[in-house]
Design a protein that fits this description.
The protein is an alpha/beta fold and 248 residues long. It has a single domain, classed as 3-Layer(aba) Sandwich (Rossmann fold). 31% of the residues lie in helices and 16% in strands.
């Protein structure tokens, strides 16, 4: 069972999370690859617990990944689940302009012989959504739009990384289209946008993953470290309360 943290969890904005990422890299030397590995490992753990009940062997996983850090985390999860015996298929929104660290994750999967395809298998047990993260500017377009629509039409359980693709991470407004997730694994601290009223039907149950942010770092963005130090004591992934705190 995944622990349920029932205490108060601070919410942070997208801009504050970008600053957390910067501080992690520049002041603590915790680089993007390390954060990506932590995110992907926790995502694989959540899928295994929530969907497969610790029996991933021969279960079918479709991982839909974008070109940035969000996609990289999803690709790490693909590697982990493949190693645990799941039948993993990776679908990319694009193979162009991929971030270096994301390309490295994809290259590893190619060397491992993980299946790469174009279409979501209708008999998949779960879809991992890692298409769009912070990079969303306006409505999803092109291949990303097509994949979001295909995910929503599939009827297959979906777990999104950090936020459902298509959800505006600044104001919490769902763009057209936005992934309708059964669960969202958000990272470090939950993003305020996930709790907006109009986001509520897209995010599903909300889980929080530890990506090894030092609690004291949060003081630099105005968060009390005492409010975050106990969150992951019971595990690196916890379920948090889904409280809608904004009416608009």
């Amino acid at each position: 069972m995944i622990p349920h943290y029932k205490g108060t969890v601070p919410h942070i904005s997208t801009e504050e999370m970008i600053e957390v990422d910067r501080l992690m890299i520049e002041e603590y030397g915790i680089d993007l690859t390390r954060m990506m590995e932590n995110a992907g490992a926790n995502l694989a753990f959540l899928v295994n617990k929530l969907i497969f009940h610790n029996k991933p062997h021969l279960k079918k996983v479709v991982v839909v990944a974008g070109t940035g850090g969000n996609g990289g985390g999803a690709l790490v999860a693909a590697r982990r689940l493949h190693n645990w015996g799941a039948e993993v298929k990776v679908i990319l929104s694009s193979q162009r302009k991929m971030k270096k660290v994301t390309q490295q994750q994809f290259d590893i999967l190619l060397k491992m012989g993980v299946n790469v395809g174009e279409k979501i298998d209708p008999d998949a047990d779960v879809i991992i959504d890692g298409i769009i993260g912070y990079s969303l500017k306006g409505k999803p377009e092109g291949r990303a739009k097509e994949l979001i629509e295909e995910i929503n039409a599939s009827g297959i359980p979906v777990i999104s990384l950090d936020a459902p693709s298509g959800l505006n991470l600044t104001d919490g407004m769902p763009e057209d289209p936005t992934v309708k997730a059964n669960a969202t694994l958000t990272l470090a601290l939950p993003k305020t946008c996930l709790f907006k009223h109009k986001a509520s039907k897209y995010v599903g149950n909300i889980y929080l993953a530890d990506i090894s942010v030092p609690p004291h770092l949060y003081t630099k963005i105005g968060v009390n470290e005492d409010d975050v130090g106990k969150i992951f004591a019971a595990g690196t992934v916890v379920k948090i309360n889904k409280v809608i705190v904004f009416s608009k």
